[in-house]
Design goal:
By secondary structure, this protein is of the alpha+beta class. It has 9 helices and 4 strands; from the N terminus they run βαβααββαααααα.
Length: 210
């Protein structure tokens, strides 16, 4: 069996890493995973891959690429060109880009940072993150009321970019109960053939009671 040429550097509890792993699974692409916790990201070897010290990083042969959304675009163009994952028409491509921007802003700074604060005491002001998350979820709920997926009538990389931190919002003490359309969308993403969920993180005992 030929060894995979794709390597993913990241951690299993990172929503940014999950975007990449989820897409590789959906595309049925074999890859090697290198667990890269914080201390390894500060090493010279990792900084040679990404001087910013951030995960995930993807290696595909001689190519080294950082930034989860950029990696999604690369994989769609390289291994699923012409597919619905990244529409070629101007309006479709723009719709996907809008959600990639939301993933990098409201999704990250809302449910993403709320989860960081609740689980690991990081991520800034939990109240501010919660306010961003609640605004985002209300927007998504309205958007998804008459839609199955975020950017098109079928799944795109926009759905993968936004999935993990929204699905794991309860880990940041943000309930998804008021958002039935969002929960239905999450279920549709999880039902895609080959989709693998991100592991659940339990609140540490000292934080669960706070």
């Amino acid at each position: 069996m030929t060894a995979p040429t794709i390597t993913v550097h990241g951690t299993k509890l990172s929503g940014h890493t999950h975007r990449v792993e989820a897409f590789l699974g959906l595309l049925r692409l074999p890859y090697r995973f290198v667990d890269t916790p914080g201390e390894l990201r500060r090493t010279a070897a990792f900084r040679a891959l990404n001087p910013l010290g951030q995960i995930p990083v993807l290696e595909d042969g001689a190519l080294v690429l950082a930034d989860s959304n950029a990696i999604l675009v690369y994989l769609a163009k390289r291994y699923a060109s012409g597919s619905a994952w990244l529409p070629e028409d101007p309006a479709g491509a723009a719709a996907v880009q809008r959600w990639l921007s939301i993933a990098a802003d409201e999704v990250k700074h809302g449910p993403g940072f709320a989860r960081l604060a609740a689980l690991w005491g990081r991520g800034g002001d939990p109240a501010a993150s919660r306010a961003i998350a609640e605004g985002l979820l209300a927007f998504m709920e309205d958007h998804l009321t008459a839609r199955s997926f975020l950017a098109a009538g079928q799944p795109t990389i926009a759905d993968l970019a936004c999935y993990a931190y929204v699905a794991h919002a309860p880990e940041g003490r943000i309930s998804l109960d008021p958002y039935p359309s969002v929960r239905a969308w999450l279920a549709r993403v999880e039902a895609l053939p080959g989709f693998v969920r991100m592991p659940v993180s339990a609140l540490p005992p000292e934080r669960a009671a706070s």
